[in-house]
Structure formats: structure tokens, C-alpha cells
Design goal:
heterotrimer, A mainly alpha (284), B alpha+beta (359), C mainly alpha (294), A: 284 residues, mainly alpha, MetI-like fold, 2 domains, 13 helices, 75% helix, B: OB fold (Dihydrolipoamide Acetyltransferase, E2P), six-stranded mixed β-sheet, elongated, transmembrane helix (chain C), MetI-like_sf (chain C)
Chain lengths: 284, 359, 294
């Protein structure tokens, strides 16, 4: 206790920065930062215990625990249909946006045309245009083309929203990629496409997998486009959730939220496991 | 690996501009079959651009490039069949050593058993037997360099291009690898074009050296010719140490002030002339030497450098001359004091008259 | 000026072909954006100039200027965007500063805390705040239990709730580029400043802070732009009392089926966004925003 105390004191007066401000003088910063980080994380996590409450009203901590709201969710044909559609659309969006975006990022990276800068900006427009505009624009166009509430229409719209993320993430990985590797492969007899597939792609796979995950989540989490373009036979989960939220606080949403948090965490872990470049840590 | 039939390289009138900068200015060059030729120059001189043109990664504006009798200037890099090593080695980190070395063979659809065989032989050639299963990040710099070489020669290309392959190694290893690469070249016999900015490396390894500057070849000669008879001030400056005196042509003689110079080779046919001397070949004497060029000067600075000492001397007209004398017990005693008058002498063979023209 | 000489024409053709082929790799993506986004939005632009009688008219824009409710919507939108951005700066800058000085292991742990909300669904986070801030919510419950206030405070379905939710959602967008810029400042700068006689406070304000501003500006710009077009969080947490432009656009379509009015609002929103980006791009490089944080 005594030793711990003096150690504490020493830490307080130890310099924390190059300019010799001590930890003690900056205590306010540490407290502030920790509080903010707790506030960043806690609201999301607090939903989890609440979803296991038996009560009609959300309470924390729950007085009685139950799986009532999960049963309600899995038992509801409406929720199940929306969940299926959301998964379908998200997976398809991922499958379209990832290759299309990676190709674009590579093309812009490798091509030294003067237009590249402009093309890059163009690819970022879906991020800059307010999503409401994208939604009502597509809504009007789809209505004319008879594509409203269609899977294709949803996938196309979500792909457009996901493309900037894929291009940015893959593009910055390509910027950090040692281009001499691809040059070497070509000098050894690989045509450009083969050099890309066998050398470049394995090197940037973490970024590609991350882009794919981002594309999936973009689609899975997206609300505004879902509100306008989904419905009928193809309602999206987020659309139903949003509508439910506008009416009343339905604890089923807490159960769905918990499942969504679980899903994202799971996907993050998968990326970490399969996408991470092999670390040279296990030197033999 | 047996001797590989080599191919000569003929570069003719190759020009490459980036905007208004001439990276390559109408370059022509012939590399003989089996020759070890070095492109030597400062960074930005165009030497790497020229190598990239040979490899096919830089497309010139115009010109011709022949491997043997085949025009290849428009052939894409993967069809040129030249081996190449890179400054950063460019080993594929997601493959083992054997994976790297076998890569060009797999591209060429060589049967699997033969691949293993040839990979082993290539690794043997670079003295890395048994390293096939290692990962790249388990190798030292020197070992990586060897893997890069093995990968570049395993498919038996008839031309080998090397882009500053030793610049990432420390000095000791570099010296050792220089000799090893030289030996490898003698054994394999492929036409080799080697890029470096290190003049000593170039002198050590090359059959011939092309000194490159501002996208042009300043001089193409053997190491000996280059050092003994540089064609112009740039080459003299870039290779070894040199010190210059402005001289003029008077009739059929070259004079410094009123003194006619004794030089063993004829002066070049140029408007401006310089007398080029190597500092280590300028002697310090007490009296004028018979048959040599003699100058009176004042020692301004004398710097002790261990194996030698350096004297900065000023001639009567204010021109500075640097000379270097080897150190010994006797030389130490004879070292002039700053401010002391000294006499310098240069033998006619060591007085080289060069073109003073623009560099 | 075209190069002449041996093979010049062929080489030029090869070069053009290669560039085109590589550039062409981007065409599927660009085509998609063109068809799904640019053309429909362009069409909205056209619709915004069509009046109720089907002829060209500026009535949709005139309504925006004349109607008090419309001008209030724009004022609210800017108010919310400014406040959110300011709060994000005040909260996010010290946090980024804190993280930038932690040893790598701790820093990556904190990064996880910042990124977790980034990865979890927007709707989930908004929902969480709705639950926490409601009348019988946890915040009110604990606040009263601790004796901080007596009666339940009205924390949601108003400006307070909107701001809390939006700051929570926007914070990572500010922290990531700011943190990136701070990490790029070498410790030697501060040592040099101290060596030259600057007090720690002075060294911070004259050396560290100016060097970190590109990241901070990039993040703030990103937050502001995102706020301008934000819909979900204010719609849920504002409870109809905080009406932003995007919400008005939605109700114009959903409730009134007035495409002209919705389009005109959308056009103004887009023009404002682009104008702000354009002005900002004259002072800082936009690719910093895009590149920041990844």
C-alpha cells in the first residue's frame, strides 16, 4: 500500500510529454477522455441486457430476465421476411460493390491519365450527395422503370452507396503497396492481370476484405434508401425498424439491435482472422 | 546452371520526355553479348529510366531497342524474357523462398517436378541450398538479395537487368556481394546491364561503364579508360577525385598562363579546355622535376586523413588545386605547414587535357 | 508537340491504349453511379423548376424564400450542424490528443472504443439513446437517484436529444483524421520548441495545435457536411420538433407527394453541400478527408 502510494506520487510528477508537463497536471485530460470513451461505447452495449428483459418497458437492469422479445422477433413472419431480404440485399451488394470498386481503385491507381483526379472525385459523389436525394432520385427513376421494391433496384442503390468506401479503402491500400512487387512479377513473365491476381491482390487482401465488410454493413444498416425503395415483397429490416421506432419504443428492436451488434462483432472477428496479413512475429 | 546463350542489346535513338524534361535524350548504346555493362550516374540522370526502357516498364517516346535481331521496343514486359532484380528486392512476402524462385517457372507452365529441380539448382547457384522453405521475413538482407538473383535467373533469361541491387546492404556485405555477382556473371554468361550510382562498385564489377547524366551518355568506356582518360569534366568529377586548371590552346600547344604543358595524349578538339589531374598523382617536390609539369603554389590548408593527407594549394593566379599524398612516417615529417610555399609536379601521362564544355 | 522518330507513332498508340484500358477498369463503377445517382438527381434538378401547372416556373424556389416555415428549417439545419460540429471539436480534439500520446497498445484499445460505434448500426445507436434519454430512461432514473434533479428532465424528442445522438454518431468522423494528423507530428518539433524557450502551453498552441489543424479541419468539414444531410437520428430523437431539410424533403414526398418542392429543397441542400466542399477545398486538400483514418 505504502509502496503503491509513492509510486502513484512518482507517476503524478513524472513528465508525460516532450515539454515536461507531468501526469498530475494533465489528470483532467485523462478523466475527461475516459468518460468520453465510456459514453461512446456504453449506450450501444446497454441495449444488450435490456433486450433480455421481460418487461414491456425497457429497464436496466431488468427485473426479470426472459427471451420474450427474441421469441417475438423469431416468431414474426414480418420480421423474418425483412431479415431475409436484408441479408440477401447486403450479400449481393457486397458481391457487386467489392469487385467493381476494387477494379476501379486499381484502374485509377495504375492509370496516369489526367482525368484520374476527376474520376476519383466522381466515385466519391455518393458520399457527398445527401442520401435523401439519392433515395428520392432512385425512387422516382425506379417507379418509372417498374423497379420499385425490387431486389435488383435495392442492390444497385446500395452498391452505389458502398462504392466510395470500397474505392477509398482499397485505394489507400494500393497507395501503400510496394508497386515494385507487381513490376517484378511482370518482369518474370506475368501479364498484368495475372500479376494483379497472384501478387497485388494477396498483398492488399486485408483492405479488400475490409471493403467487402463495409459494403455489407453499408447495405445492412442503411435506412433512408430502404425507406423509399424497399417494401412490398422486399421490405428491408432497417425500414421496418425505423417505422417501429417512429411509433413507439418496441423492445423487439432491442433484441434485433443485440443480434445486429453480435453480427457486426462476428464479422469484425472474421476479418481479423482471415484478412490480417501474416505477422512476422513468429520468427523461427 | 550452365552457360546461357547470351544476346546483345542495341539501343538506338531512344528519347523519353516527361513534360519538358528530357529523361532520355536520343540515347544510343550497344551492349555486347555476354557483357557486364554498368549504367553509372547521379540520381535523376536517366540511368534507371534507361533500365526501365530495357525492361519494358517505361515506354519511350521514340527509338528502337533490339535484343539480338528482334525489335522489342513495343513488346510488353512479360514477353521480353529478361531477368530483373530490384533495389528493394521485390520479393513476394506471401510466398516462401521456393515459391518466389519458382514463380517465373509456374508462369511458364513448367512441370512441377522440373520446377522443384530448377529451383534447387538456382538456389545452389546463389549458395542458398536448403533455404527453399524459409519465409522471406526470415532472411537477412544479403540472403534476400541472393533470392532475388535466383528468381531472376531461374528461367534462364539471356539478359539480366539489375537496378541498384546492392544499395540496401551495408558496406561490408556490399563488397562481398560485388565479387559474388561478378563471379556469377562469369559463370552464367548472360548479358548484364547493371545500374548504380556508386562509382567504386561500377569500377569493380563492369566490363564497360556508361556514365549517364541529363539523359545522355557522357562516356562509354572500360573502367580503366574512364578513370585514366575521362572525356569531360562531368566524368572526371563523378569518377574518382579530380582537380582542374583552366588552360588555353596556343597554336598546336596547350598552355597554362605562359607555361606550355606536357601531356601524353592529344588535346580534344574543343573550344574550352581544362587540365585534369588526379589529386593522388600530383607530387610534392622541392625542385622542378625533369620532363614533368611543375607549378609553384602556397599550401593553404593541410588536412591529416589517416592513410593520406590532403593539401589545398593556391597557384599564383589564385586557382585552387587539391592534392593528396599517401601517409607514411617520412611523409608525416615532410607534411607542409599551412602557408608554406610548395612545388607541385605532374607527369605528362597524368596531365589529361579534357573538354571544358557544358556539363 | 508530338514526338517524331523511329516507332514514335506505334509507341504513342500503345501508350494511349494502355491508359484507356486501365482507366476503363473504373467504368463499371462510374457507369453505376451515373445511372443510379447522377441521372436521377439531375432529373430532380429539372423537376424543381416545374410548377404545379406543368410549365417552367420558379415557384418551388420562391416558396422557400417566402415561407417562414421553410426558412426556419434551413436555420435549424445550420444550427444543428454548427452545434454538432462545435461539440465534436470540443470533445473530440482532447480525446484525440489523449490517444495520440498513449503507448501503442493502449492507443489501439482506445481506438477500439472509438471504432465500435463506427461499426455498429446507426439505427441501433439511435435507438439506444432513445431508450437512455426517455422520461423513464436510465439517465433520468440515475440523475434523480443521485439527487441531481428532482423531476424527470425532457431529454429526448427535442434539440437536446438530437444533439446528443448526433454528436455520438459524428464523433468518430472527427477523431480519426485528427488523431492521424497528430500522430504525424514528430516529437522533435515539441522538443525543439521547448529548447527554443517555449513554455509547454506555448509550445502546444504555437507548434502542436497548428500542425494538427489540417486533420481537425478535415474532420470538422466531414461532420458538418454529414450533418447537413442527416435524417435518421434527428427524425427519431427530434420527435418532430427538430425539422431538418432532409426530413422536410421526405415529408414533402411521403405526406404531400409534392415532387417539385422536395426537389427544390434537395437542389438547395446539394448546392450548399457542394459550395461548402468547394470553399473548403481551396483551403485544404479534400483527399485528406477521404484518406483520413484508414
Amino acid at each position: 500500500m505504502q509502496a503503491g502510494g509513492t509510486e502513484m506520487l512518482r507517476w503524478f510528477s513524472a513528465p508525460a510529454t516532450e515539454t515536461q508537463i507531468t501526469h498530475g497536471q494533465r489528470l483532467w485530460l485523462y478523466v475527461f477522455s475516459v468518460v468520453i470513451m465510456v459514453l461512446l461505447v456504453a449506450p450501444t452495449l446497454i441495449v444488450i441486457p435490456m433486450s433480455f428483459s421481460d418487461s414491456q418497458y425497457l429497464e436496466f437492469p431488468p427485473e426479470t430476465w426472459s427471451l420474450r422479445w427474441y421469441r417475438h422477433y423469431f416468431g414474426s413472419a414480418e420480421w423474418m421476411q425483412a431479415t431475409r431480404t436484408s441479408f440477401k440485399v447486403a450479400v449481393l451488394t457486397m458481391l457487386v460493390a467489392t469487385p467493381v470498386g476494387v477494379l476501379a481503385a486499381y484502374g485509377l491507381h495504375a492509370s496516369r491519365v489526367r482525368l484520374v483526379q476527376a474520376a476519383f472525385l466522381f466515385l466519391l459523389t455518393p458520399m457527398m450527395v445527401p442520401v435523401v436525394l439519392v433515395a428520392i432520385g432512385a425512387f422516382y427513376a425506379y417507379a418509372r422503370l417498374n423497379m420499385l421494391y425490387s431486389l435488383t433496384g435495392l442492390v444497385l442503390a446500395h452498391t452505389v452507396l458502398a462504392l466510395p468506401l470500397v474505392v477509398i479503402v482499397t485505394g489507400s491500400a494500393l497507395k501503400g503497396f510496394d508497386t515494385s512487387l507487381e513490376v517484378a512479377a511482370r518482369s518474370l513473365g506475368a501479364p498484368r492481370w495475372k500479376a494483379f491476381l497472384t501478387i497485388t491482390l494477396p498483398q492488399i487482401r486485408f483492405a479488400v476484405v475490409t471493403s467487402a465488410l463495409l459494403a455489407f454493413l453499408t447495405s445492412f444498416d442503411e435506412v433512408v434508401v430502404a425507406m423509399f425503395l424497399s417494401g412490398g415483397d422486399n421490405p428491408l429490416l432497417t425500414r421496418n425498424m425505423f417505422n417501429a421506432l417512429r411509433d413507439q419504443i418496441d423492445p423487439t428492436i432491442a433484441a434485433i439491435s443485440t443480434l445486429m451488434i453480435l453480427l457486426t462483432t462476428l464479422m469484425m472477428l472474421l476479418v481479423q482472422i482471415f484478412g490480417q496479413p501474416r505477422k512476422p512475429a513468429d520468427k523461427g | 546452371m550452365a552457360n546461357i546463350a547470351a544476346l546483345p542489346i542495341t539501343v538506338a535513338n531512344v528519347t523519353k520526355t516527361y513534360g519538358r524534361v528530357h529523361a532520355l535524350d536520343n540515347v544510343s548504346l550497344h551492349v555486347k553479348s555476354g557483357e557486364f555493362l554498368t549504367l553509372l550516374g547521379p540520381s535523376g540522370s536517366g540511368k534507371s529510366t534507361l533500365l526501365m526502357v530495357l525492361a519494358g516498364f517505361t515506354r519511350p517516346d521514340s527509338g528502337s531497342l533490339k535484343f539480338g535481331d528482334h525489335e522489342v521496343i513495343r513488346t510488353p514486359p512479360h514477353l521480353r524474357d529478361v531477368g530483373m532484380t530490384f533495389q528493394s528486392y521485390a520479393l513476394f512476402p506471401h510466398m516462401t523462398v521456393a515459391g518466389n524462385v519458382g514463380y517465373p517457372l509456374r508462369l511458364r507452365k513448367v512441370p512441377r517436378t522440373e520446377i522443384a529441380d530448377r529451383v534447387d539448382r538456382a538456389l545452389q547457384t546463389v549458395q542458398l541450398d536448403g533455404f527453399g522453405d524459409r519465409r522471406i521475413d526470415q532472411l537477412s538482407g544479403g540472403q534476400r538479395q541472393r533470392v532475388a538473383v535466383a528468381r531472376a535467373i531461374v528461367f534462364e533469361p539471356r539478359i539480366l537487368l539489375m537496378d541498384e541491387p546492392l544499395s540496401a546492404l551495408d558496406k561490408k556485405l556490399r563488397d562481398q556481394m560485388q565479387i559474388e555477382l561478378r563471379r556469377l556473371h562469369e559463370k552464367l554468361g548472360m548479358t548484364t546491364v547493371y545500374v548504380t550510382h556508386d562509382q567504386r562498385e561500377a569500377l569493380t564489377m563492369s566490363d564497360r561503364i556508361a556514365v549517364v547524366n541529363h539523359g545522355r551518355i557522357m562516356q562509354l568506356a572500360t573502367p580503366l579508360d574512364l578513370y585514366e582518360h575521362p572525356a569531360n569534366r562531368f566524368v572526371a568529377d563523378f569518377i574518382g577525385e579530380s582537380t582542374f586548371l583552366p588552360v588555353t590552346r596556343r597554336g598546336d600547344r596547350v598552355v597554362y598562363g605562359d607555361m606550355a604543358l606536357r601531356h601524353s595524349r592529344p588535346a580534344p578538339d574543343a573550344a574550352g579546355l581544362l587540365l585534369m589531374m588526379r589529386p593522388e598523382r600530383i607530387a610534392l617536390t622541392t625542385a622542378p622535376v625533369e620532363g614533368a609539369n611543375t607549378f609553384s603554389a602556397v599550401a593553404r590548408e593541410v588536412v591529416y586523413q589517416g592513410d593520406s593527407y590532403l593539401v589545398q594549394a593556391v597557384l599564383a593566379d589564385g586557382t585552387e588545386i587539391t592534392l593528396r599524398r599517401p601517409m607514411s612516417g617520412a611523409a608525416l615529417a615532410a607534411m607542409p605547414a599551412p602557408g608554406a610555399p610548395i612545388t607541385l609536379s605532374v607527369a605528362p601521362e597524368d596531365a589529361v587535357i579534357i573538354d571544358a564544355g557544358e556539363v | 508537340m508530338q514526338a517524331k522518330g523511329e516507332n514514335a507513332a506505334g509507341l504513342r498508340r500503345d501508350d494511349r491504349m494502355e491508359r484507356l484500358r486501365l482507366f476503363g477498369l473504373g467504368s463499371p463503377a462510374m457507369l453505376l453511379i451515373l445511372v443510379v445517382l447522377v441521372i436521377p438527381v439531375g432529373w430532380l434538378f429539372y423537376v424543381s423548376f416545374i410548377g404545379a401547372d406543368g410549365n417552367f416556373s420558379l415557384e418551388n424556389y420562391r416558396r422557400m424564400i417566402n415561407s417562414r416555415s421553410y426558412s426556419r428549417i434551413f436555420v435549424t439545419t445550420f444550427q444543428v450542424s454548427f452545434l454538432t460540429t462545435a461539440l465534436c471539436i470540443v470533445i473530440g480534439y482532447p480525446l484525440a490528443y489523449f490517444m495520440a500520446q498513449l503507448p501503442p497498445r493502449l492507443a489501439s484499445l482506445c481506438m477500439l472504443a472509438v471504432l465500435l460505434p463506427f461499426w455498429t448500426s446507426l439505427l441501433v445507436r439511435t435507438y439506444a439513446w432513445l431508450v437512455l434519454l426517455q422520461r423513464q430512461g436510465l439517465v433520468n432514473e440515475w440523475g434523480m437517484a443521485l439527487g441531481l434533479w428532482d423531476a424527470p428532465l425532457k431529454l429526448v424528442h427535442n434539440m437536446t436529444g438530437t444533439l446528443v445522438g448526433m454528436v455520438h454518431i459524428m464523433l468518430p468522423f472527427l477523431i480519426l483524421p485528427t488523431y492521424g494528423a497528430m500522430k504525424a507530428i514528430g516529437p522533435d518539433y515539441l522538443k525543439a520548441a521547448a529548447n527554443l524557450g517555449a513554455t509547454p502551453r506555448r509550445a502546444f498552441w504555437t507548434v502542436f495545435f497548428p500542425l494538427s489543424t489540417p486533420g481537425l479541419f478535415a474532420g470538422a468539414l466531414m461532420v458538418f457536411i454529414l450533418c447537413l444531410g442527416f435524417f435518421v437520428t434527428p427524425a427519431v430523437l427530434g420527435g418532430g420538433r427538430v425539422i431538418l431539410v432532409s426530413m422536410q424533403i421526405v415529408s414533402n414526398i411521403e405526406l404531400f407527394v409534392n415532387w417539385g418542392a422536395a426537389s427544390a429543397l434537395g437542389v438547395v441542400l446539394l448546392v450548399l453541400t457542394v459550395a461548402i466542399l468547394w470553399i473548403a477545398s481551396r483551403f485544404l486538400r479534400l483527399d485528406h478527408i477521404a484518406g483520413g483514418g484508414h
